[in-house]
Amino acid sequence: MKMLLDGQWVDRDKKIDVTDPFDNSLIDTVPAATKEDVETALAAAVKGFEITRRMTVYERAQILFKTAAIISDNLEEFATTIAQEGSKTITEARKEASRCVNTITASAEEAKRILGETIPFDSFPGGEKRRGYYYRFPIGVILAITPFNDPLNLVAHKLGPAIAAGNSVILKPATVTPLSAVKLVEAMVQAGLPPQAIQVITGYGHEIGDALVSDERVRMISFTGGVEAGKHIAKLAGIKKIGMELGSNSPVIVWKDADVDLAAESCVSGAFWAAGQNCIGVQRLLVHKDIYDEFKKKFVARTKQYKIGDKLKDDTNMGPMITEAEAIRVEKWVNEAKAKGALVLTGGKRKGALYEPTVLEKVPKEMKIHCEEVFGPTVNLYEIDDLDEAIKEANSLPYGLLAAIFTSNVDVAFKASYELDCGGVMINDSTDYRLDSMPFGGVKYSGLGREGLKFSLQEMTEPKVVCFYLPQI
Ligand code: NAP
Q1: Are 112 and 165 in contact (CB under 8 A)?
Q2: I need a surface site. Which of 142, 176, 304, 444 has the fewest CB within 10 A?
Q3: Distance from the CA of 186 to the center of ligand 1, in angstroms?
Q4: Is 390 touching ligand 1 by the criterion CB < 6 Å?
Q5: Alpha carbon of 175 to ligand 1 centroid (Å)
Q6: Which residues contact 297 (CB under 8 A, 6 or more apart)?
């Protein structure tokens, strides 16, 4: 596939192979962008903004509605690309492609709701005979940097609202999974987006990232990825807006009055979705001692039923990790915990990039698999018997994206929802529940700002005040 620079689909002699992590087969290549390509992208994005800022809301919304229809009409093709280049099974990929249709549709709808207000200038002395209002205007060039784990829908979460607001965009997708992103941009252009409005630059973040991030022509960086890259970008960014959707280590409390079957089923899916490479994947399960054994038995039994392997088969439950190196890292973390006394209840074995869905208990608190983001198919069980202690434990790490609690007691649910320190609390769902239009983001190292179309649109626009002094009235 090619990249889109200054209105042209271009290739380069130096290419990057895009391979299927299941069998390392070559799917396609993308150009390896150079520093000169970065300059082309930046200059073109500035010109592109002169076009997008003048487009009407109706035009922007129509392009997005048409984009959603194109994806919807070609859902299986989009799903296959997601499944081939990434870790997701075809079933998981179909869900992502459908969610992308929702994300782009909601962006189109929200484009029509970018509202302002009148301002009561006469509410203090000195404001007499003044009338005015504010409206929201697009901020300019948005640099969207996206991760590998949702290679289509997380790109849509940036392009949809950026275009809805009237901005121009430079997209740098994850190097291991650029194809879904390029296909989304192709759909947007086919739907009528002026090609100058969007630049897609494919290349390694560590090679082209700094030049993009530090450039003053970029007015906002919308980044989704890991904490390390996030910190690096934040240091270099200078004076521009930053949106950061980062990692987490999500806790779920299973209280003594929970529906154990529901909790086990929901948390197995939440732990192993996309082979655990999911920013809201369940990592720590804090289970009340009265139901601990029952929950453990059901959770482990359900995990053992997981069929892992070929992502393109309908009956595969879980695919490989994104690279063998990532699977080796997870294996190391598990073995390290095992050596310090953790028990592996099921899983724990690796074959190439495939790492078995793994359940641990008695994990010492200083282990990486307890305190860092594992981003792999492993989950830890802990026994708890006091709600305050469980909440304290859930809050004990420097992350806070989503948290969850299973309970049938509304008081317990309310207490947890107020005291869990994070961007959202799911009651009787695992942390792996997200509606694309809800405000989504984290506290602490999990991020800055919120996505979720209406909320992204606030971040990607600024209010401008207009005040009329009318001495004659
Ligand atoms: P990553 O390694 O941080 O990469 C994310 C993106 O940043 C990629 O496009 C990467 O490019 C780029 N990048 C890396 N270094 C850069 C630099 N110095 N300058 C500019 N760009 C740079 O993350 P990942 O492994 O793809 O994704 C996993 C992480 O994303 C996890 O921590 C996960 O929790 C987080 N995540 C968060 C959310 C959320 O909504 N909160 C959602 C999904 C994932 P290359 O690919 O070229 O390195």
Answers
A1: no
A2: 304
A3: 22
A4: no
A5: 10
A6: none
**Cα–Cα distance measured from residue 462 to residue 466, given in angstroms and rounded to the nearest whole number:** 13
Averaged pLDDT score across all residues of the chain: 98
Predicted local confidence at residue 45, as pLDDT: 98
Query: What 8-state DSSP symbol labels residue 275?
Result: G
Tokens standing for 461? Answer: 């626009």
Rounded-to-integer distance, Cα 154 and Cα 162, Å: 13
Contacts of 51 (CB under 8 A, 6+ apart): 168, 194, 196, 197
Q: What is the arrangement of strands in the sheet containing 130-138, beginning at the earlier edge strand?
A: 117-119, 130-138, 461-469
Please report which helix (H) or strand (E) contains residue 378, including its range. Answer: strand 378-384
The 3-state DSSP composition of the chain as helix, strand, coil percent (nearest 5) reads 40, 25, 35
CB 99 within 8 A of CB 153: yes
φ and ψ of 361, to 5 deg: -140, 170
What residues are annotated to the active site? 245, 279
Of 250, 243, 296, 297, the C-alpha closest to 273 is 250
Q: Is the CB of 174 under 6 A from ligand 1?
A: yes
C-alpha span between 146 and 229 (Å, rounded) = 11
For residue 279, the ligand 1 atom closest to its alpha carbon is 34
Domain boundary assignment for the chain: 3-247+442-466, 250-427
Q: Is the CB of 280 under 6 A from ligand 1?
A: no
Q: Which CATH class is domain 250-427?
A: alpha beta
Atom in ligand 1 nearest the alpha carbon of residue 247: 34
Task: Give Cα 297 to chain centroid, integer Å.
Answer: 32
Q: Are 357 and 347 in contact (CB under 8 A)?
A: yes
Amino acid making up residue 116: G
Give the DSSP letter of residue 245.
E
pLDDT, residue 18, reads: 98
Distance 279 CA to ligand 1 centre (A): 11
CATH entry 3.40.605.10 includes domain 3-247+442-466: yes
Calpha distance 37→247 (Å, rounded): 30
User: pLDDT tens for residues 90-137?
Assistant: 999 999 999 999 999 999 999 999 999 999 999 999 999 999 999 999
For residue 9, list its beta bridge partners.
Answer: 4
Q: Is 148 in the pocket of ligand 1 (CB under 6 A)?
A: yes
pLDDT, tens only, 10-51: 999 999 999 999 999 999 999 999 999 999 999 999 999 999
**Is the minimum distance from the CB of 209 to ligand 1 under 6 angstroms?**
yes
Q: Which residue has a Cα nearest atom 41 of ligand 1?
A: 245
Q: Is 129 in the pocket of ligand 1 (CB under 6 A)?
A: no
Question: CA-CA distance, 300 to 303, in Å (whole number)?
Answer: 5
Q: DSSP labels for 3-29?
A: EEETTEEE--SSEEEEE-TTT--EEEE
